Amino acid sequence: MSEAANPALVSGLLGEGADVGTVAKFFRALGDPSRLRLLAFLLDGEHSVSDCVAHIGLSQGRVSSHLACLADCGYVQARREGRWCYYRVADPRVVELVVLARALAADNRAALAACERIDGPEAAPRRT
Amino acid sequence: MSEAANPALVSGLLGEGADVGTVAKFFRALGDPSRLRLLAFLLDGEHSVSDCVAHIGLSQGRVSSHLACLADCGYVQARREGRWCYYRVADPRVVELVVLARALAADNRAALAACERIDGPEAAPRRT
DNA sequence: TGTACATATTCGCCAAGGCGGATACCATTA
DNA sequence: TAATGGTATCCGCCTTGGCGAATATGTACA
Description:
Two copies of one chain form a homodimer. Chain A has a three-stranded antiparallel β-sheet. Helix content of chain A is 57%, strand content 11%. The first copy, chain A, contains seven helices and three strands; from the N terminus they run αααβααββαα. Chain A has a domain of 72 residues: Arc Repressor Mutant, subunit A, CATH 1.10.10. Chain A binds a DNA duplex through helix 5. Chains A, B: Keywords: DNA-binding, Transcription, Transcription regulation.
C-alpha cells in the first residue's frame, strides 16, 4: 500500500511535531529571493519596514507582506513602536540554517545554476 | 540606490560563493511536499526510482523529475545499475539541514499552519 | 534485432503565489 | 477633529511550477 518502508525513521525526521506539509511551507518561505534578501538584511540587525523597503526596492505593500510571512514562519519577530514596526531575527538557529544552506548551495552552485527544473531556462527576470 | 546598508555582512552570509538567487533556488527545492517526502524516504537509505514511485504514489515521470531536481541541487546522488537508477542522500549536512528546519518548524507549527500567505486558506489538497 | 522493462523527457492544464497600485488601518501631532 | 505618515490588506495581472499522460531513451535479454 505504498507507505513508508521505514515509517519510524521517516516519522522521526519529518513527522514528529511538524508534518511534511508544514516543513515544506517553512522551506518555501526562504525559497523566494526577495524574502531571503529581507532575512539577510535583518540578520544584519533590527530594521523598520521602511528601511527594508529602501533596501530591497520593492513596493511597500509587498515588503510588508513578505515580512509578515517571515514572521508567521518564525524567522523574524516584530516590535511595534508608535507608527513604526521593527523586525529582527527571532532565533539564533535561523543563522545556522542560512549558513548551512549557503555552504551546501555553494558546494553545488554549478549544478544549481544549471538546474532548469526550478525557474526554467535563463530565469525570466519577472517584469521590471 | 537602495543597496545593502551593510553589504559586507550580507555578502558574507548570502553572497559569498552562492548568490541569493541560487540559495533561494536551493531552498525552493525543499519547499515542495513531494520532494521533501522523497528526501525523507532517501534519508532512510538508498532506493530506486520505482521504489520511490511505490512509496509516494505519484506518477513515474513526476517522481523521476523530482529526483533529478533534488540531484541537481546536491541533496541526493544517483547511481546507475543496468536499467535501474538508485538515489541516495549525497551529503551528511543534508540531514543536519532537515533536522534543524524540522526543529524550527515544530517550534512554530501553530503560526506556520495559520500562515495563509503561503498556500492560502485551508491549503487546497492539490487534487488527489 | 525485436521485445520488455526501468527511467527520462515533453506536453497541456491549472493552481500557487509574486508583483504594483490602490486603499484601509492606526498612532502621532496640530 | 483633521491632517500626516508608517504599515497592512486587497485587487487583478501574469509567471512559476506541480500534475498526469504520452512518449522518448536506454539497457537487458531472447
